[in-house]
Amino acid sequence: MERTKAIERMRGICSRKECCRQEIAAKLEKLEVEDVAGAVDLLCKEGFIDERRYARAFARDKSALQGWGSLKIKLALQRKGIEAEVISAALEEIDSEAATSKLESLLRAKLRTLRKEEDAATRRAKVLRYALGRGYGYDQINKVYNDIVRTD
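Above: the chain's sequence. Below: its structure in token form.
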């Protein structure tokens, strides 16, 4: 595809949703555009690509909508080539109370599916494994789990 048409297409995509450099570069490579790095730099200069804005939106959405913990969000952003300082800033903006509340609702839902499990240790291990897979830290999971068990 012609470079100018491809850049125009990427402007449209970036106008509709936040994208990182890596995502746009992959799309441009798929379209077989010459000078992918130059095209991505142009989109950054024009403000269509902003890694900080992308990281904040990604962290906020994954935490609130999909119940991801900060560890899973951090790893996903690292895989997308986002710098460590940008990731740290994005993770600081996540509401810790809302994340804890989301973790509590996830653990309660998981515990409801494990009601038939008689052994408390097995039930606990399954819940911990589930929450660790969602990207929450062990200490945070342990505290919320113990609070749930005490109140129930």
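The longest helix spans residues 96-113.
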